[in-house]
Design a protein that fits this description.
The protein is mainly alpha-helical. The chain folds into three domains: about 5-170, no CATH class; about 185-290, Cytochrome Bc1 Complex, Chain D, domain 2; about 305-425, Cytochrome Bc1 Complex, Chain D, domain 2. Helix content is about 40%, strand content about 5%. It contains 19 helices and seven strands. The strands form three sheets. The protein has a three-stranded antiparallel beta sheet with strand order 1-2-3, with no helix packed on it. Strands 4-5 form a two-stranded antiparallel ribbon. A hairpin with a 2-residue loop joins strand 4 and strand 5 (about 230). Helix 2 (about 40-50) packs across helix 6 (about 125-140). The radius of gyration is 22 Å and the shape is globular. About 45% of the residues are buried. The model is unreliable at about 1-30 (pLDDT under 50). The chain binds heme C (3 copies).
C-alpha cells in the first residue's frame, strides 16, 4: 500500500473513534464502596469507562453490541461483550480480555479498529482489568445477539493495516504519574487518561486523526478538539470554574453557570454522573492542576458587560441581533447574559458561545438542548429550539451579538455558517 493510501486508511478508520450516535442503557448501579466484590468493582469501572455507550444499541440488551459507528468509509458495528460463549466474549481468558481492552488485539490475534478506545485503556491497571473481567464474565447477562458484520470497504477492511497505525500513533504505555502529584491528583489523572478516555474527544487530533498528545505531561493533552464539527472545550485548568463547579457539572450536567449540551450529555448521563463524589473530586483536582492552554487571542474587543446590559435595558436603537435577543432569549438568559444559577446557563463567558467554531452555538440555538436526568439532579432543563422562528440571516445576527456582547470576544457569524448547521440538523 502506498504511503498516501495508508494515510487515508488511518484517517478514515480512526474517524470512527469519535463514534457517532452514542446511545446506551443505564446499567444497574453498584456503588464503589469498601467490601464490594471484584465484579461489583468491575461494574463501577465499566461505568467509568462508559463501555455501555458504544457496546449497546437501542432496543438490544446492554453490552450485546450492534451500535453502528459510521467511519465515513463503511459502517463499523460494536461487538457483543456479554459472556455469551459464541457471540460474546465468554471464551476470553483474562489475558485475552486484557489484550483486547489495552492493546486492541482480539483473542484470534486480529486487530480492532481504534473506534474502541484502547489507546486510552492502555493505562488501565492490572487490578482494574481483573475487576472488569470479573464483571463481564459473571455480572453481565449473556446475550446470544449477533451484531451485524462491519461493512468496511477494501482496503479498509484489512485489519492488519492497524499494525502500522498502532506503530506510529498508539502510545500503548502504562499510566505514569508525574512527580509531585498528590494522591488525589494522581487518581484523577489515572481515571481521566485511562478508563475515562476523556482525551478521545478533548485532545486535538493530527493528520491521521491520532490524538496529538497522550498524557498529562504534554501541553496539547486535553487542550480541546472537535467532534463531528462540534467544538470540544479545553479541560486544562478550567479557569472559569472552581473544584465544586467541575464536580457539579460532571455529576448533574449543570452548575452555577453552565449546562451540558452535545455529545457530553451522554457522557454525563451514562458515565460521570455515576462516578463516586470522591472520584469526581479527584478528577476536578487533576484538571485544575493542569496548566491552562494559552488563551486564544480575542477576535474582537468586547463590547463590555455594562455597555451591553445598559443597551438592552434601554431598548432603543437596537441592532437586529440585540432586538432578537430581547424578544427570544432574555426571558431565560436575562439582559445580563448571566441566566439563573443551575437553571438557565450563562451566555456571558460560556465556552460554547466563545468557541472559535460557532457550530455548537448555532446547533443549540436552532435545535435546542436538554440536560440529562441524573440521580443528583433528576429534573431535565430544556432549551427550546428556535430553528423555525429564525431565518439564517436573523440567526447569524443574533449569534454575532452573543459572541460580541458582554465580555465575549469571538468573531461574527455569517449566514452561510447558519445554513450549514441547519442543513446538518435537517439531515438527521
Ligand atoms: C467509543 C466506543 C467504545 C467504547 C467506549 C468501548 N468500546 Fe469496546 N469496542 C468498540 C468497537 C467499535 C469495537 C469493535 C471494533 C472492531 O470491530 O474492530 C469494540 C471491541 C471491543 C472488544 C473486542 C471484542 C471482540 O472480540 O470483538 C472488547 C473486549 C471490548 N470492546 C471491551 C470494551 C470494554 C470493557 C469497554 C469499557 C471499559 C469498551 N469496550 C468501551 C467501541 C467501544
Ligand atoms: C464523546 C466525546 C466526549 C468525551 C468522551 C468526553 N467529553 Fe467532555 N465534552 C464533550 C463536548 C462535545 C463538550 C462540549 C459540551 C457543550 O458544548 O455544551 C464537553 C464539555 C466538557 C466540559 C465543560 C467544559 C466547559 O468549559 O464548558 C467538561 C468539564 C468536560 N467535558 C469533562 C469531561 C471529562 C472529565 C471527560 C472524561 C471523563 C469527558 N469530558 C469526556 C465531549 C466529550
Ligand atoms: C425557556 C427558557 C429559555 C429560552 C427562551 C432560551 N433558552 Fe437558551 N437555554 C435554556 C436552558 C434551560 C439551557 C440549558 C440546556 C442545556 O444546555 O442542555 C439553555 C442553553 C443555552 C445555551 C448553551 C449554554 C451552555 O453553557 O452550553 C445557549 C448558547 C443558549 N441557551 C442560547 C439561547 C439563545 C440564543 C436563546 C434565544 C434565541 C435562548 N437560549 C433562549 C433556556 C432557555
Amino acid at each position: 500500500m502506498s504511503k498516501h493510501a495508508m494515510k487515508t486508511l488511518t484517517c478514515l478508520l480512526t474517524a470512527a473513534v469519535i463514534g457517532l450516535g452514542i446511545a446506551g442503557h443505564a446499567a444497574a448501579a453498584a456503588p464503589a464502596a469498601p467490601g464490594q466484590t471484584l465484579a461489583q468493582r468491575g461494574a463501577y469501572l465499566a461505568r467509568v469507562g462508559d463501555c455501555v455507550a458504544c457496546h449497546s444499541a437501542p432496543g438490544k440488551p446492554a453490552f450485546a453490541g450492534g451500535l453502528p459507528i459510521d467511519s465515513g468509509l463503511g459502517v463499523l458495528y460494536s461487538t457483543n461483550i456479554t459472556p455469551d460463549k459464541e457471540h460474546g466474549i465468554g471464551k476470553y481468558t483474562e489475558q485475552q480480555f486484557a489484550d483486547a481492552v489495552r492493546k486492541g488485539v482480539r483473542a484470534d490475534g486480529t486487530h480492532l479498529y481504534p473506534a474502541m478506545p484502547y489507546t486510552s485503556y492502555a493505562k488501565v491497571s492490572d487490578e482494574d482489568i481483573k475487576a472488569l473481567y470479573a464483571y463481564f464474565q459473571t455480572g453481565v447477562q449473556a446475550s446470544a445477539y449477533a451484531p451485524p458484520e462491519s461493512k468496511m470497504g477494501f482496503p479498509f477492511n484489512q485489519r492488519w493495516g492497524m499494525v502500522f497505525w498502532n506503530f506510529f500513533f498508539a502510545d500503548n504505555k502504562p499510566f505514569k504519574p508525574q512527580p509531585g502529584w498528590s494522591p488525589q491528583v494522581r487518581n484523577g489523572a489515572y481515571l481521566v487518561e485511562g478508563l475515562g478516555h476523556c482525551s478521545t474527544c478533548h485532545t486535538p487530533r493530527g493528520f491521521a486523526i491520532n490524538e496529538k498528545a497522550s498524557n498529562s505531561g504534554e501541553a496539547k493533552f486535553l487542550a480541546g478538539g472537535e467532534l463531528n464539527g462540534w467544538p470540544v472545550p479545553s479541560l486544562r485548568g478550567l479557569p472559569r470554574w472552581d473544584l465544586a463547579a467541575i464536580v457539579d457539572y460532571l455529576q448533574t450536567g449543570r452548575n452555577k453557570n453552565s449546562a451540558v449540551a452535545g455529545e457530553m450529555t451522554a457522557v454525563v448521563q451514562h458515565s460521570t454522573s455515576q462516578m463516586t463524589t470522591a472520584d469526581l473530586n479527584d478528577i476536578a483536582a487533576y484538571l485544575k492542576a493542569l496548566p491552562p492552554a494559552p488563551a486564544r487571542e480575542a477576535a474582537v474587543k468586547p463590547q463590555g458587560r455594562e455597555a451591553t446590559v445598559k443597551k438592552l435595558s434601554a431598548a432603543v436603537d437596537l441592532t437586529l441581533g440585540e432586538r432578537l435577543y430581547l424578544d427570544n432569549c432574555s426571558a431565560c438568559h436575562f439582559v445580563t447574559g448571566k441566566g439563573a444559577t443551575r437553571v438557565f446557563p450563562e451566555l456571558d463567558g460560556a465556552s460554547v458561545v466563545n468557541a472559535e467554531n460557532p457550530t455548537a452555538l448555532l446547533h443549540v440555538m436552532l435545535a435546542g438542548a436538554r440536560t440529562p436526568s441524573t440521580d443528583k439532579a433528576p429534573s431535565v432543563l430544556v432549551m427550546p429550539g428556535f430553528g423555525k422562528r429564525l431565518s439564517d440571516g436573523e440567526a447569524a445576527a443574533l449569534a454575532s451579538f452573543l459572541r460580541q456582547g458582554w465580555g465575549n470576544t469571538a468573531a461574527a457569524v455569517s449566514e452561510k455558517d447558519v445554513a450549514k448547521v441547519r442543513a446538518r440538523i435537517d439531515a438527521k
